Amino acid sequence: MAQVTVTINAREYPIACESGQEARILQLAGVLEEKARLLKDISGQISENMLLAMIGILVADDLLEARKNNTAPSAPATGEDAEKTITAADRELSARLRIVSEKIKAVAKQIESL
Questions:
Q1: Residue 107 has pLDDT above 70, yes or no
Q2: Which of 22, 40, 60, 90 could form a disulfide with 4 if both were Cys (CB 3.0 to 4.6 A apart)?
Q3: CA–CA separation, 101 vs 78, rounded Å?
């Protein structure tokens, strides 16, 4: 298990991750930091909790847009047909979402312990 320290909104957070994933964690934290800067520029001084909630909403919006742009089945599918409509991109996105979800949970736990 490796550890990397990320900085978001001028606060450092030590994040545990699998060895070899350090660069990816830093890349993801960079996205969050970018969103934090954008929100602070627009909103001025806001509480850290509100900032984190707003960052989450922006990331969720990005995710929904990505899903919308990558998936466009012609008709609703059910049962076995639904399995066939899942593309490789959908599977990759799903896997990435699971990883990001676990990382978000880990960050949330660390924030709660502060």
A1: yes
A2: 22
A3: 27
* Local structure of residue 74 (DSSP, 8 states): S
Q: What are phi and psi of 51, to 5 degrees?
A: -60, -45
For residue range 4-24, what is the model confidence (pLDDT) as tens digits?
999 999 999 999 999 999 999
Question: What token pair was written down for 106?
Answer: 């880990």
Q: What is the H or E stretch that residue 3 is in?
A: strand 2-8
SS3 track for 24-55: HHHHHHHHHHHHHHHHHHHHCCCCHHHHHHHH
| CB-CB neighbours of 77 under 10 Å | 13
Distance between CA 9 and CA 19 in Å, rounded? Answer: 25
